[in-house]
Each structure stands twice: as C-alpha cells, then as structure tokens.
Amino acid sequence: MSNSKSKSSSLHEKAGISPPEITNVSAINEIQQKRKLQPSSKELVDGILSSSRTALSRAITLIESTNPEHLIKANEVIKDCLPHANNSVRIGITGVPGVGKSTFIEAFGKYLTQSGKKVAVLAVDPSSSLSHGSILGDKTRMEELVKDENAFIRPSASGATLGGVARKTREAIILCEAAGFDTIIIETVGVGQSETAVHSMVDFFLLLKISGAGDELQGIKRGIMEMADAIVINKADGDNVKKANLAKVEFNRALHLFPIKKSAWQPKVTTCSAVTKDGIPEVWETISSYFEQTKETGYFQENRKDQNHFWMMETINEQLKSKFYSQPNILSELEKNKKAVQNNEISPFAAAQNLLELYFK
Amino acid sequence: MSNSKSKSSSLHEKAGISPPEITNVSAINEIQQKRKLQPSSKELVDGILSSSRTALSRAITLIESTNPEHLIKANEVIKDCLPHANNSVRIGITGVPGVGKSTFIEAFGKYLTQSGKKVAVLAVDPSSSLSHGSILGDKTRMEELVKDENAFIRPSASGATLGGVARKTREAIILCEAAGFDTIIIETVGVGQSETAVHSMVDFFLLLKISGAGDELQGIKRGIMEMADAIVINKADGDNVKKANLAKVEFNRALHLFPIKKSAWQPKVTTCSAVTKDGIPEVWETISSYFEQTKETGYFQENRKDQNHFWMMETINEQLKSKFYSQPNILSELEKNKKAVQNNEISPFAAAQNLLELYFK
C-alpha cells in the first residue's frame, strides 16, 4: 500500500508504517453483513440459553428500544426465556451517593464469582437519561468485575418514567436468568420512588450505609430503613472501625422497634470494608440464611408470585392514567380544576368528578 | 276518648288511663310534614353557618348517601360551605386497639373545649360497615365529650372502599369547619391503608401507644412511625409511669434515626394518662408549637394545597381503575392472565398489555 497522503502541501506527512494487507476480504464483508442483520428472536433465545453474552446484550437492547416492532420481538424473546428463568436470587442494593455502592458491588460480586456464582449486575436509575448515568454509566468503576467471565454488568435503561425503566429492568432479569446467571444484583439510588420499585422486584433488599456524625442518615428517604432486610455499614476500615461498630449497635436497636416483617425475617446489621474485604463474606452469609429461611417457610415463592401480580396491576394502572392524562381536553380542564381546588372554590372530589365526566362522556 | 279496643273477645283489655286530649292538631301535622320534607341545600347551608348541629348532622348524612340526587345536593352544600371552611386545625390520631384511643380523645377533647375550643371528632374506619363500627360506633365510650356543647362526635361513614370512606370524611371536615368547629380530630385504626389516608387529610398526625414488654410495637403497621409528628405514650399512670418513661427514651432515640421531614419538624415523644389527665396539656403544647412553626415556614398552607391536589388525583385514579375492573370481559381475562403470570408463562407486562388492548379496542 503506497502512502496516498503525500501531497504537495504544507501539511506534508511523513510516510509511516503501512497497515497490514487485508488477507481475507470476504470475511470482513461477512462480518459487516452480519452486523447489519438483526438476529431473529429464535436466534436470540438460542444464544441466551447457550449463555452468549452478545445475544443477551442484544436482547436487552431490544427490550430497551422504543420501536414498536422491537417491542413485539422482545415479547417473543421474553416469552421463550420465561420457562428457563426464575432460578436465581435477586438482591437489591441501595444507598445514597458516597457510600461506595460501586466499590461494594465490585468486592461483593468478585467474592460471589470466586465462590462459583454467575453474577449479573443491573441498575434502576430513572435519572440516567438526564444525567447520562449517575450509576453504572461508567463501567470503569467496577474494573475487576467487568473483566470477570462470570459477571455481566449492564447500566440502567434510560427512560422518562420510573415505570418504563422498571419494566425494562424486570425483563432484563428474566433474560439474565435464562442465560444462566444465578445471582442478580439490582443497584439503585434514592431518586424518587426507585427504591420502592426495586424493592418490588427483588427477593432481598440491602441498604448500604457509612458511619459518621449521624448526618449520614439524613440522605436516606423515609421508609427505606423499614424496607431493608439488611443494613451494611461500609468503609469500616482504619479509623472508621470504631464508629462503624457504634453505628451497628444504633441501627440494631432501631430495627428492633419496627414491626415484624411479613417474611418473619429480623433484619441484620453488619459492617464491612470494600477495600480490605473484611465483612464481605458475612454479607453473603446473612443473605444466604435469609434465603434458607424464606424458602423453607414458602415466603420466597409467595413473594415472587405477589411481585408478578403487583407488576401486572401496576402496569395496567399506569397505562390507564397515562391514557387519561394524554387527552388534550383533559389537560386544559385539569389546570382549571386544579386552580379551583387550590383556591377552595371546589372540593377535590367534585373537581375529579368534572374531569371524569368529560373523559367518559 | 272511649275505649274502642273493648270487644266481645277473649282478648279483653281493661280500660286504662286515657291519653291526654290533643290540644293542637295542626301543630302535630306541621311537625309531621316538616319531618317528611328534606331541607333544601340553602336551608342546610344556612343552618350549618349558624352552627346548627341538626343541619350539620343532616348534611353529613346527605354526603354519606348513595342516592345520586343526594350526591348533587351534597355537592351544592359543600360548594357553599367551602368559603367558610379551612379555618381549623386538623389532627389525626391513630393507634392499635387497646391503647385507649377513645379515652384519650375524651380527655384531650374535654381539655380543648375547656380551653374554649370547638372540637369535632370524626373517624375513618372502612371496616365499620362489616364490624358495625369498631371505633366511634359507640358514643358511650366518650361519655363526657358527647354531652359537651362545644363538641360534635360523628362515627365513621360506612362504605366498602377506603376511597369512599375517605371522601365522605374529607367532606365532613369541610362542613364541620363551616359550622365553626376549629379543632377537627380524625380517629383511625390500623386497618389496611386507612392511616395513610388519614395522614393525607390532616395537618398533624399523632400516634398513640402504650408502654410494655416491647411487643406492643408489633401491632403497628410499617411506615406509621415515620408518618407520626408525635408519639404519645398513653396509660402512664401508677406502676406504668417508669415503663412509659423508658419507652419515651427508646422512641426518641429511634425517631432521631429517621430522615428529616419535609415539614422540618422533629417529631416529639411524650407520655400521658387519660385517667389522671397528666400530660394532656403537654400534648396540646406539642401540637401548638408544630402549628406555630409550620404556619411560619408556610409548610402548613403548602401541605393543605398539596393534600387537595392529592385527593383530586387520587379520586381520578381510583375511578379510572374502578371503571376498568368493572368490565365483565376484563374480569374474566384478568383471571386467565393472572394465572399465566403466576405460572411464569407470560411476563406481567405482556399480560397487562393483553388486558389494556381488550379495554381500549
């Protein structure tokens, strides 16, 4: 190959080392052709069931697409994956920014893969479409895990509504399970209602915290502590060990004040360090004993059924609302009635009646 | 008046004392006529605004009626009362059966009326239609307050749905306020979502508890503690005083672990005895300082606006759902899809899609 860039211009470039000759042009064409072709839903399912990460990634992309044709195909893939799903444990992990979620998941995930587990890490972060991924957007924060053959990391689906993001994540769980991942970790941050959504799609809910002057508590949203099956106090290393142990005592005391959970599980508080790896095995021990207990009582299975039912109803309710609020005549009347309600000219119920009559007439 | 019942039968009755002669037949006719006549909405409003308890009671009965004509009239009454409402403080009181809610409200209510307040006590108890009034069904439990000129006690509206009971109570609040009641107490028990509903219609939410071996905590529902603006430990008398004070310390510690409230109010824990009346004035002191603080920051007013908006949206959403789920074809398909979802034959989202297509086609 001759140096074609050499011209009689002032931007003269010295001839460098020539790239190697292409030895197999037809192979390149074939690859390019394949890339353009969308795999069929059967090809995707076969790929997923034989643990192909490429097939899994592509199927998740399909789920996340807004193209109606993709939606049909995605539904086919999910339907065929469903009989092979559900053989995992699903763990939700939440915590305010700064508690070290990524580092913790990296250390915890590595511990799990070294114990022979296959770990998929997904995320629910409805803000990611605005912030371009505040969590998991940057896989480099999980340097080790991302290179791990037995781990699969996927950033949060983007979307304007939590409902949409939640749907996509729930379906991604099914695909990951069908691909043979036996431990699914769902990461989330305290944005809006995302924790409640994640709590409704996992078997175990872990709240990650750090010890401190007490003000670290202010960041968590109301109700999160009551949802937690375990509180893990991270960064319990060096000078922090003592403070972390104090926080552990404090949280344990507080948790005992809460009413007993439907699962009959008494939430545990432990400390750990994602840096020294101290306490990481204990986190898994806690989770394991939870699974042992709830599978024996049947709560585990019952809860999954309830969650499925919940998401069906939730989707219906969301769609009914979205249809109502997308009517132009409703929107203008809504504003009028809202003002009248706020100025105490009309009761909230009479205002609602006005709008419903308009909708159903 | 001769004894017309004397007949030649074995059921012979001896002539007794004759009833007094009717001296004013036209007066009786007039009363009977009036009783049959329903007062007009204007008459009701006039009555309410001049603090007539009869008018207030009748208007609330109208609100609670299922007759569509009554609904129209009720809406007129509410509309005309609205400009005269909203000048009260609304206090929600909850606690499991056995904490002594009725006795507490009796003592607290008497304290308020003796301080010159006009107190209305309403209740939200969706179970009352089944249990025939588990709370406030029996006014005799508030012996003193029921005779008090400055108090008005009304048992819970009955109804199959919490939404319906909540609507009726919200509207009864408006009427009570228009009738000049400046302190509205809404009582509820921990049934289903009734506490959340009451929390969304009051300015201040009080959780009543008793001290004990720790197991008294098990009765309360998850999330209630975080909703409370005050926890009052009742029955702090005799041998219980020490235990009540210990419980106070424990709850105070726990409450400090919760994230800061939107109102910026730090919930208080106090003890009281509805029997000795110890601590009753302190409960009102706590509530007063809450109102002082939140009215100054503007949270009080903002929260009421938000609540009005919430109830408008809530009513719309409830009605949209109720319309959907009352379609016979939806109901049969719902059962089929529910089963398929539970058996993992179809994803919850695909099942929802099936039903929505059926509904909107």
UniProtKB/TrEMBL annotation, chains A, B:
Coiled coil: none annotated. Keywords: Hydrolase. It holds the Pfam family MeaB. InterPro entries: AAA+_ATPase, GTPase_ArgK, P-loop_NTPase. Its EC number is 3.6.5.-. One of its GO terms (cellular component) is cytoplasm. Residues 1-24 are annotated as: Disordered. GO terms for molecular function: GTP binding; GTPase activity. It comes from the Bacteria. Residues 87-238 form the AAA+ ATPase domain. Transmembrane segments: none annotated. Belongs to the SIMIBI class G3E GTPase family. ArgK/MeaB subfamily. This is Methylmalonyl Co-A mutase-associated GTPase MeaB. It comes from Flavobacterium flavipigmentatum. The gene is meaB.
